[in-house]
Specification:
20 strands, alpha/beta, Aldehyde Dehydrogenase, Chain A, domain 2, 15 helices, Aldehyde Dehydrogenase, Chain A, domain 1, globular, five-stranded parallel beta sheet, single chain, binds nicotinamide-adenine-dinucleotide
């Protein structure tokens, strides 16, 4: 493994969001919560001290959002006109892409190449959603009497959007763009560890020309600000991405209040190498699938199933390549893995490695922190491969959200499907083979919202995304992205005479 020297110095970047303010109902205000600190996981330095929202700010945001969403000019704005605001947002994101990517790398430690891709994806989301909005049609179901019926879609009102820390601007855009396109106001609560990009997005939305009251960005803790958004009677729909336990609690509250939800939750995804796979292609794909983003990805391919016939050869190659991955400063050219989000999170990932070893597993690569003293102040961890771990070990059953891969051997497809599905999660799956019919059969048998064959972690805003089982119960993206943020209404228009009954 090559550890890169942390030569880059994080630049002092200008920010659009005014310092010390949050965005409540389109106005920059001080925020009634306890101040948040954005810490650079690469070296523990403070990137910024930020204002945080409190419960009182949720009240203001929802009140102004409700008024703005009900405003006649916004409600009756034609789709192609509203789409211009979305296009303008995409242009503004693109015009500041490098600054936003750098900020995000400082805020959450992802390598610059990845944060550049996330910023581009956010802009692409706004453009795609604009196109969907302009092409959306309502229906006129067949008439069964002397009337015409129209099935139309209307905004919900105020949408609560709650996002995690691992891909801030991309996951924020995935909720905010369709929620606004659908005609709603949106109250966005980013994760407390990574609030900066959401505030920047808020400033960009105002500059793009969205009516001010529609947009709120309320950084703060989930237990207070998040909970207040979930419980507020003025919030009609909750769009949540985060951990399964949090999602379950949120869904229980939403059910009691009869709110609709979309839930994108955790994962423990299998990635499968069949005996006929091109092993070079498969090694590259498996490495990318688990170790990009330092494994802090809901779709990380964290359980590796390799056919017995190629297991030893594949594991040897994989272990050797894992040791050569470059752990380094997120801004250094060529870094493949940056630091984990916090030292505390690294400790939790290390605990899983210990669990795997204590359960009888063997360390095939990594297992500890990098030796390079220049990386000592950051929360770095070497990519790790274990095998020989029993099926009931925590390291194999729980989502780790870090650079830890556990390899397992299989002999036939029935055994493989049973083992791959032996998890509460159902988010993603990878299959490496040249045998397409076999891959197809497996793809249909594995319980996962997304299956990749001979590729991994490729995501398109045009393709629906979501989980099964404890990974969630909804779909984002795709042609129904905007509809998920609307309510359907049926309108009957009488075409006959008086209703005979009353004669
Ligand atoms: P988390 O569940 O701890 O937090 C997610 C968000 O919910 C944060 O903004 C947090 O402040 C907020 N929150 C926490 N408690 C809350 C409460 N009681 N009420 C309302 N909001 C509350 O998750 P995390 O650690 O930020 O993110 C990692 C998790 O997210 C992983 O499990 C990962 O798999 C999942 N994730 C899923 C997807 C997906 O698309 N399926 C994508 C990215 C991340």
């Amino acid at each position: 493994m090559t550890d890169l020297a942390p030569t880059p110095v994080a630049p002092d970047l200008p920010r659009l969001a005014p310092a010390g303010k949050i965005l409540a109902g389109g106005r920059w205000v001080e925020g009634s919560g306890t101040v948040l600190t954005s810490t650079n996981p690469a070296d523990g330095s403070v990137v910024a001290t930020l204002a945080a929202a409190g419960v009182a700010d949720v009240e203001t945001a929802v009140r102004r959002g409700t008024e703005a969403a009900a405003d006649r000019a916004w409600r009756s704005m034609l789709p192609h006109v509203r789409a211009r605001l979305l296009h303008r947002t995409a242009e503004l994101i693109e015009s500041q892409a490098e600054r936003l990517a750098l900020l995000q790398s400082q805020d959450n430690g992802k390598p610059l190449a990845e944060t550049r891709a996330l910023v581009a994806s956010a802009a692409g989301t706004f453009r795609y959603v604009a196109a969907v909005l302009e092409s959306q049609e309502d229906a006129m179901p067949p008439s069964r009497g002397e009337y015409l019926t129209f099935s139309v879609h209307e905004p919900i009102g105020v949408v609560g959007a709650i996002t995690p820390w691992n891909s801030p601007i991309a996951s924020d855009a995935q909720k905010v763009a369709p929620a606004l396109a659908a005609g709603n106001a949106v109250v966005l609560k980013p994760a407390a560890w990574t609030p900066m990009l959401a505030l920047e997005l808020g400033a960009i939305l105002l500059e793009a020309g969205f009516p001010a009251g529609l947009v709120s960005v309320l950084p703060g803790p989930g237990s207070t600000v998040g909970q207040a958004i979930v419980e507020h009677p003025g919030v009609g729909h909750l769009s949540f991405t985060g951990g399964t336990d949090t999602g379950r609690t949120l869904a229980a509250t939403a059910a009691r209040l009869l709110k609709t939800t979309s839930l994108e939750l955790g994962g423990k995804s299998p990635t499968i190498v069949l005996p006929d796979a091109d092993l070079d292609v498969a090694v590259n794909g498996v490495l990318f699938g688990i170790f990009s983003s330092q494994g802090q990805s809901c779709i990380a391919g964290s359980r590796l199933f390799v056919h017995d016939a190629v297991y030893d050869e594949f594991l040897a190659r994989l272990a050797e390549r894992t040791e050569r991955l470059r752990v380094g400063h997120p801004l250094a050219e060529g870094t493949q893995l940056g630091p984990l989000i916090t030292a505390g999170h690294r400790a939790s990932v290390e605990d899983y490695i210990v669990n795997g070893l204590e359960a009888g597993g063997t360390l095939r690569a990594g297992g500890g922190r990098p030796d390079d003293p220049a990386l000592a102040a950051g929360s770095y961890l070497r990519p790790t491969v274990l095998d020989g771990v029993p099926a009931n070990a925590r390291v194999l059953r729980e989502e780790i959200f870090g650079p830890v891969l556990v390899a397992l051997r299989f002999r036939d497809d029935d055994e493989l499907v049973a083992a791959a599905n032996d998890t509460v999660y159902g988010l993603a799956c990878g299959i490496w083979t040249r045998d397409f019919p076999r891959a197809w059969r497996l793809a249909r048998a594995i319980e996962a919202g997304t299956v990749w064959i001979n590729t991994y972690k490729q995501l398109s805003i045009a393709t629906p995304f979501g989980g099964m089982k404890d990974s969630g119960a909804s779909r984002e993206k795709g042609l129904r992205a905007v509809r998920a943020y609307q309510r359907q209404k049926s309108i009957y228009l009488g075409t006959g005479g008086p209703i005979a009954w009353a004669d």
